[in-house]
C-alpha cells in the first residue's frame, strides 16, 4: 500500500464500514426500485396500447355469430349484417379508430396487398367525430405514400362501429374479425400482422 492508499489514523473505521454497507444497501434498493419501475412501465404500455401485442382466437365450429349491426360508410352506402352475408365468400371487419395510425394502417394495406379483392369493413370503435369518415379513409390511404408516389387507394368501407365493438368486447386496435358467409366469426386476430401468409390462412377459413 503506498502513502496515497493509507487510511488516515484518525479515521473512525466502524463508521467507515457502516457507511460502506449503507451505500451498498442503497444501491441495491435503487436497483430494485428501478426494476419495479421498468416492469410497471411495460405493464402500463400493454394496458394503454393492447394492439401492440398480437393474439389469435379461432375454432373450426366458429367463435359465435356476428351481432346485427347497421352503419353508413364513407361512400354513403348503408351496411348491415344481412347486406354482407348470404353470398359465396365471407368478409373481414377491421376494428380500428381514427387516431390509430400504425399498426392499424399497416394491417389495412397488408389485407389489400395479400388477399384477392376481399370485402373489408373498417369500423371505428371511437364515438368522437373530430374528423369525417372520408378524411379517415384518406389518412389510411396515405400510409404507403412516398414522395410523388401516392400508393394505393384502399377499396374498403369506413364506418362507425361503436355499438357492435362494445357488444363484442373489442379492446385492441386493430382487431380483425374473419366472418363467413353465414355470419359466423371464424377467426379473431388482435394487433399487428407480421406475416402475409398468416392473413392468407385466416382468409381461407371464410373463402
Describe this structure in words.
The protein is of the alpha/beta class and 207 residues long. The chain has two domains: 3-48; 51-204, Glutaredoxin (3-Layer(aba) Sandwich), CATH 3.40.30.10. The chain is built from six helices and eight strands; from the N terminus they run αβββαβαβαβαββα. The protein has helices at 13-48, 81-84, 104-114, 133-141, 162-167, 196-204; strands at 55-58, 70-72, 78-80, 91-96, 120-124, 157-160, 175-179, 185-190. The chain has a six-stranded mixed β-sheet with strand order 1-8-7-4-5-6, covered by helices on one side. β5, α4 (133-141) and β6 form a beta-alpha-beta unit. The longest helix is centred in the N-terminal third of the chain and has 36 residues, at 13-48. Mean pLDDT is 83; it is low at 38-53.
Write a concise keyword list for the protein shown above.
207 residues; alpha/beta; Glutaredoxin; 2 domains; 6 helices; 36% helix; globular
Amino acid at each position: 500500500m503506498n502513502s496515497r492508499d493509507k487510511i488516515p489514523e484518525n479515521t473512525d473505521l466502524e463508521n467507515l464500514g457502516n457507511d460502506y454497507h449503507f451505500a451498498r444497501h442503497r444501491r441495491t434498493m435503487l436497483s430494485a426500485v428501478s426494476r419495479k419501475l421498468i416492469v410497471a412501465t411495460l405493464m402500463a404500455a400493454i394496458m394503454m396500447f393492447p394492439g401492440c401485442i398480437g393474439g389469435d382466437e379461432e375454432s373450426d365450429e366458429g367463435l359465435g355469430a356476428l351481432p346485427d349491426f347497421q352503419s353508413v360508410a364513407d361512400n354513403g352506402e348503408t351496411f348491415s349484417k344481412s347486406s354482407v352475408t348470404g353470398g359465396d365468400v365471407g368478409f373481414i371487419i377491421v376494428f380500428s379508430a381514427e387516431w390509430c395510425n400504425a399498426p392499424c394502417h399497416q394491417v389495412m394495406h397488408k389485407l389489400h396487398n395479400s388477399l384477392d379483392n376481399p370485402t373489408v369493413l373498417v369500423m371505428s370503435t371511437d364515438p368522437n367525430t373530430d374528423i369525417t369518415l372520408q378524411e379517415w379513409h384518406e389518412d389510411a390511404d396515405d400510409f404507403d405514400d412516398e414522395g410523388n408516389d401516392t400508393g394505393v387507394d384502399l377499396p374498403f368501407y369506413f364506418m362507425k362501429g361503436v355499438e357492435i365493438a362494445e357488444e363484442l368486447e373489442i379492446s385492441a386496435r386493430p382487431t380483425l374479425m374473419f366472418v363467413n358467409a353465414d355470419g359466423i366469426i371464424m377467426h379473431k386476430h388482435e394487433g399487428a400482422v407480421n406475416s402475409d401468409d398468416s392473413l392468407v390462412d385466416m382468409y381461407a377459413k371464410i373463402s
